[in-house]
Amino acid sequence: MQHEYPRNGESTHPSSKKPKLSSKFITESDIRDEFSHHQQRVARINNGSYGSCPNSVLTAQRHWQLQFLRQPDAFYFNVLRDGITASREIIKDLINADHVDEVSLVDNATTAAAIVLQRIGRSFAEGKFQKNDTVLMLHCAFQAVKKSIQAYVTRAGGSVIEVRLPFPVNSEEEIISEFKKSIEEGKSNGRKIRLAIIDHITSMPSVVIPVKELVRICRAEGIEQVFVDAAHAIGSVKVDVKEVGADFYVSNLHKWFFCPPSIAFLYCKKSTSSSDLHHPVVSHEYGNGLPIESAWIGTRDYSSQLVVPAVLEFVNRFEGGIDGIMKKNHDEVVKMGKMLAESWGTNLGSPPEMSAAMIMVGLPSRLCLDSEEDAVMLRSHLRDRYEVEVPIFHQVSVDREEGVRDKDGFITGYLRMGKLAKCFIRNEKAVIKVGAGFHGITSVFCRLLMRAAFTVFKESYKRGAKSSAEELELLTNVI
Amino acid sequence: MASSLHDAPSAAVNGTFAADAKSQVHKKPRLYADPSPPLFTPSDILSEFSHHDPAIARINNGSFGSCPSSVISAQNDFRLQWLRQPDDFYFNQLQPKILQSRTIIKDLINADHVDEVSIVDNATTAAAIVLQQIAWGFAEGKFNHGDAAVMLHYAYGAVKKSVEAYVTRAGGQALQRGKQNGRRVRLAVIDHVTSMPTVVIPVKELVTICREEGVDQVFVDAAHGIGCVDIDMKQIGADFYTSNLHKWYFCPPSVAFLYCKRSVNNSDLHHPVVSHEYGNGLAIESAWIGTRDYSAQLVVPKVLEFINRFEGGINGIKKRNHERVVEMGQMLVEAWGTHLGCPPEMCSSMVMVGLPACLGISSDRDALNLRTCLREKFGVEVPIYYRSPKDGEEGGVTGLGMQSINLLTMHSLVLLFPIHKLK
Q1: Could you report the predicted ipTM of this complex, rounded to two decimals?
Q2: Which candidate, B224, B146, B152, B154, places its Cα nearest to that of B188?
């Protein structure tokens, strides 16, 4: 089916204008249909990792894919570039960028990090930066970003400063204060901080960072460039790149903005430095500017970059559009997080105003989560045995005296709750798992706790012994 | 419609295929225990490619390939599995399935070990990987400023730019003429089958010459290689070899392999998009470069199944493609009084056919205009190449690339006959 996609994005910031295609909003049964391809029995509480893509967008994507396969040459010459530009125009308006030239589409935030850091690496290699000049990042930066820094900065002779974020965190001031301390350290011994990488919403543990304030501090302290890794931001918090004021800002549209895997935008504020940015996969478009380079990196399937108009159409079928969706997600995840923390006697990892569509909920200390391995095991157990998909975070306690306690001991684990609000998934069969997934989690954990032999479970998983598994089954059934 | 042109996939399927010593150098991997799935019938083939625009004669298979419906279907199944429960797919399915594809490819190309085979998007990405390690060689002082990378004049545009981005920028020289002033040649980039104009290069011989001349490393850009010419890593002997499977090997866009001989210091090869897998070897790094759709990399088993339903498998297909395209090329040069771009034995599944001088093509722009005109007015998709005159020669040369299963290309050639009337 042929859609008439808007070729020129809406010209005003979405918070001031709510375009509606019809006066009728999306219904619950529409929503059920849109997500009918999700595995019905699984409670998806990890929307943050891989997102959710509605059927109408998948259909639009298939349309683009088929169009390419029908006549790929004509598609390449006549359709592809315009389609990508249309998506970029929409994104430019959504994020309040000045010019579409500032918006490039790439696969994901991981790719964007490679682009920005490769440039930093070149500057070290070409002698523009002194050896040991620094790059600043958060201690809990995404692992791919850390590795990218290793691959491009450390290897080229740069040094790295990590800002240790307090967690659980109680206020923005705590973060700002740690940030300022690290800047001092980064500038010590006559070094220059060449780049600061700041998450807008950290991944594990997940907290909304006061980026606008941190960017302002960077400018005041003479940090040359700031790169905001906002992988989770769009569709989750308001994104206004001019307000944030960073040089580079990346966000994945396939997490909270209903796009299929995968598509992200990299915003690069127009300045002299943005002219030396290149996509690491070099095509014949090399030198024509990052947006053009990124729009052709060899033969591949670009269809996920072409469906942004269809996604906007989908989002605008909800009352309040993306703003309405964001609010519902936030309200619901906070409500559910509080409910769990109360019923377990634990805590939230951050106050509600420092969370968006995800929240960290302390796990009962009696689970004795003592390592990253335990966290992985628990996650697998929840997936395999209870069909609940939720990431588990192990909190390494730096100073036990300052750790948070519940009535039984120190809280060493958190789950990251991030799901689309209940209104999205209302399926009679799945309601036990998904629509009321939180209740599911509560009962699961109650059972695990009541066994009080969680250590037995851990041991048996490690040994993989069949008899222990049988033991476990017995225990679980009894309870 | 000349019936002699109307092919018969039946002729293709039932045609004599004399197995010769060269055709089965190494074993054909078969994944299925079930005894020979039936060979394709003409109507099977029509339905496998029913999604192609029926009004267009596709004579440019070389650029974007052709993917059969059964493979697209398999790909959609994988996409759906991911969407159903992505975390589970990530933790439990993705890596084993990519490994399965890599293992099949390893057997197809006669590599020693699956660790030597990485899957990437396309040859363009492979070039970036190989050239990036050269750039580090310069940046870290392993190479001297002025040491060179050598490539063919007809190297693919993206590869030339990649050499500029990674080698020249890092202080190396990009040469088309070989060693100068006693500097070392750190890398030679050789095409197996050039793109425009298209010619099969004697890579085995060139690699031998490189070794004799003391070239550090040889990278064979065989974007058109697999499914088009015979490829045997041990025979060719290059350090790096890349080929796209979405050109002549029926894969959807996009999937390519990069072979890296084990003797090379592989620990220094990295995918430029760095994920948490950094440092775990190129094959593992390439298998996770952030959240994206990896489905094209997972359908290789299904593609093998498809290919084995042709008589002679991929070797049968290659042979028939070559014979057909040479036959058609010769028919055209006779009709137009021109010549082929190279002798038949240096053609693969693509051939360059000289265009009549009366067309008056005298620039790249003219060539592109002709191509657009052929697409829009005549429904023919074919790349046109222009080379500026040497020694009084004139004229553009057309590249024709086709596969035996595409019936429509036969019809299109009839349309091309009155081409001299275009002017």
Answers
A1: 0.86
A2: B152
